[in-house]
């Protein structure tokens, strides 16, 4: 396995670990201070982080098995960017940061969508089939 794939697997595992921590913190630490809408937003951010951290690991494994594909490596980078911006903006605003920070969430969400398109394109263009 190459260094890039290993790196993205480690990043994915760390993102999964922090998602578990943030989930627990949201339930035990923040719940009394958040409105119902804020709790739902927090849960949604944790879910999105979890799903896409798993996707990051999956795409890294695909790249190791069927790659190398520059598109899959780019997809991994875009997944990380998207998670940081989308989920991070929600976490920051719900922790008391400026509400205007939430305005960057669509950039992160669009990045995640783009990452999935890169995964699909990478699959279509992959020649190796072992």
Brief digest:
This protein is mainly α. It is 81% helix and 0% strand.
Explain the overall architecture.
- The chain has one domain (3-125).
- The chain starts with a helix and ends in a 5-residue tail after the last helix.
- It contains four helices and no strands.
- By secondary structure, the chain is an all-alpha fold.
- The longest helix is centred in the middle third of the chain and has 31 residues, at 36-66.
- It is 81% helix and 0% strand.
- α1 (3-30) runs antiparallel to α2, α2 runs antiparallel to α3 and α3 runs antiparallel to α4 (105-125).
Based on the model shown, name its key terms.
mainly alpha; 4 helices; 130 residues
Mean pLDDT: 95
Q: How does the helix and strand content classify structurally? A: mainly alpha
- SS field, number of helical segments: 4
Q: Give the number of domains.
A: 1
Number of strands: 0
What is the share of helical residues? over 70%
Overall geometric form: elongated
Oligomerization: single chain
| Topology pattern, helix = H, strand = E | HHHH
Strand coverage percent: under 5%
Main sheet: strands, sense, barrel? none
Our Rg estimate from Cα atoms comes to 16 Å
**Uncertain ranges:** none
Termini, distance in Å? 15 Å
